[in-house]
């Protein structure tokens, strides 16, 4: 990455809008120190706080508070950074921001501080994203995961894979240069073993990144089954509110209803759908078509049956039609009516959970099962945060590496194996931002909050 030297000094209020005990204004750039001196007087020593009056450009005192100075390049952004920590009044902070802008700073774009930190090689792209994820974390576990990524745990794994890819490329390209000699370097078992190990590591990392992504982006759970089995009741139970209309009339839920909830630290999008059955009503038929569409998008399907009836032949036929990517849990609902206690069992090769959506009995069994399927049980150690774009890049790297493996095994076009490995390396480099377009960077940083 080329280091871009910014000539502009940026400023932003780093604390949230509204009133609070403290309000912090942050400056970064070549003029940060000079502007701060005009506002707050002599700068304290690096990384030490000093109490100062803050004045507007006419010399009128606006506020008093702490002045901190972080000289570059060892600051967050890599540039000179100054923090003015005053009182958290929106009018005060606005005056302060106007004052620094009158003295030559400009208002920062969302994420611009982090963007500069990235461009000045203070953090890589995955770490910059982890900062945003830490701020946005919807649960304690998600926050811990983001903090691990910020520490560089995810990036370290990527760097290790990139290093190995480079070495393999060097080896193959070197071997090609000596190809007219007697020894066939490319037939060497060591090379194949190393590539196989690399592929294994990619698989593991994809699984881990997918877990981290679920903590951040959640997992989609679709409720399905025949009409009147209690799908809408279960949605309301999960959401803790009356989001869906529950009636005794079969076919009430006609559209697809989505609720975003946090189930024991795991963000979920729960989708309630129309009951699957033959219908002459065009509206209901459209609802059923949408139900199938929702199933195609989901990761987990909860297939409900009435516990008094169990899994019928119709249910078995419908279960067999579910898209193969789905993890299916059969929910034997209304156990309050069947008289069976809540439990987990296996039926017709499906994992079955017996519960009552109406009175909530057995809901903890469902929570546990969903978290287990998502791979985010409480004892799942070492999860780091990740995003869809990371998982996609890892999958591309895996596909290229597997192609390289195939080329090597065929032994016909080993020069293409080296090229596939180069592409795999490039895909991984997108994650840490060593290889990324300005478009991508703009997209990532614009989603940050102001002042970060
Ligand atoms: P859906 O068509 O699958 O969405 O089913 P609903 O959620 O609309 O429920 C259909 C009927 O079953 C309603 O009268 C609910 O009150 C009732 N019901 C749903 N779950 C339970 C349950 O666990 N126990 C009992 N006793 N009734 C339930
Ligand atoms: Zn319903």
TrEMBL record:
Top enzyme class: hydrolase
Family matches, as Pfam families: MMR_HSR1, MnmE_helical, TrmE_N
EC number, UniProt record: 3.6.-.-
Domain of life: Bacteria
Required cofactor names: K(+)
GO CC, any one term: cytosol
Family: Belongs to the TRAFAC class TrmE-Era-EngA-EngB-Septin-like GTPase superfamily. TrmE GTPase family.
Function field: Exhibits a very high intrinsic GTPase hydrolysis rate. Involved in the addition of a carboxymethylaminomethyl (cmnm) group at the wobble position (U34) of certain tRNAs, forming tRNA-cmnm(5)s(2)U34.
UniProt-recorded name of the protein: tRNA modification GTPase MnmE
Organism the protein comes from: Stenotrophobium rhamnosiphilum
Organism taxonomic ancestry: Bacteria, Pseudomonadati, Pseudomonadota, Gammaproteobacteria, Nevskiales
Gene name tied to this protein: mnmE
């Amino acid at each position: 990455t080329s280091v871009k030297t910014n000539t502009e000094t940026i400023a932003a209020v780093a604390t949230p809008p509204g009133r609070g005990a403290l309000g912090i204004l942050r400056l970064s750039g070549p003029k940060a120190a000079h502007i701060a001196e005009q506002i707050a007087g002599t700068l304290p020593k690096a990384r030490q706080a000093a109490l100062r009056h803050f004045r507007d450009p006419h010399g009128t005192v606006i506020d008093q508070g702490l002045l901190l100075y972080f000289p570059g390049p060892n600051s967050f952004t890599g540039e000179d950074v100054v923090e003015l920590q005053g009182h958290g009044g929106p009018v005060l902070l606005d005056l302060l921001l106007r004052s620094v802008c009158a003295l030559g700073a400009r208002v920062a774009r969302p994420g611009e501080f982090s963007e500069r930190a990235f461009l000045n090689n203070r953090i890589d792209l995955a770490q910059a994203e982890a900062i945003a994820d830490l701020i946005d974390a919807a649960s304690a576990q998600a926050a811990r995961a983001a903090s691990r990524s910020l520490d560089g745990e995810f990036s370290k794994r990527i760097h290790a894979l990139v290093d190995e890819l480079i070495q393999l490329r060097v080896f193959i390209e070197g071997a090609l240069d000596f190809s007219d000699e007697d020894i066939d370097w490319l037939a060497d078992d060591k090379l194949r073993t190393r590539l196989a190990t690399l592929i294994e590591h990619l698989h593991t990392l994809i699984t881990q990144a997918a877990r981290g992504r679920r903590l951040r982006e959640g997992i989609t759970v679709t409720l399905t089954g025949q009409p009147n089995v209690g799908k809408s009741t279960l949605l309301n139970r999960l959401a803790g509110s009356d989001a869906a209309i529950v009636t005794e009339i079969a076919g009430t839920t006609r559209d697809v209803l989505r609720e975003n909830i946090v189930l024991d630290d795991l963000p979920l999008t729960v989708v309630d759908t129309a009951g699957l059955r033959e219908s002459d009503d065009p509206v209901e038929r459209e609802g059923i078509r949408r139900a199938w569409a929702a199933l195609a998008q989901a990761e987990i399907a909860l297939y409900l049956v009435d516990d008094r009836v169990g899994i019928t032949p119709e249910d078995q036929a419908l279960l067999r039609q579910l898209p193969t990517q789905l993890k299916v849990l059969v929910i034997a609902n209304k156990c309050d009516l069947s008289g069976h206690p809540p439990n987990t069992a296996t039926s017709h090769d499906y994992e079955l959970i017996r519960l009552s959506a109406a009175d909530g009995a057995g809901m903890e069994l469902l929570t546990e099962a969903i978290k287990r399927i998502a791979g985010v049980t409480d004892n799942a150690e070492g999860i780091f945060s990740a995003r869809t774009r990371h998982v996609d890049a890892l999958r591309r790297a895996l596909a290229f590496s597997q192609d390289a493996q195939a080329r090597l095994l065929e032994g016909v076009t080993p020069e293409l194996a080296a090229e596939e490995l180069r592409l795999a390396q490039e895909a991984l480099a997108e994650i840490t931002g060593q290889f990324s377009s300005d478009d991508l960077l703009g997209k990532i940083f614009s989603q940050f909050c102001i002042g970060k």
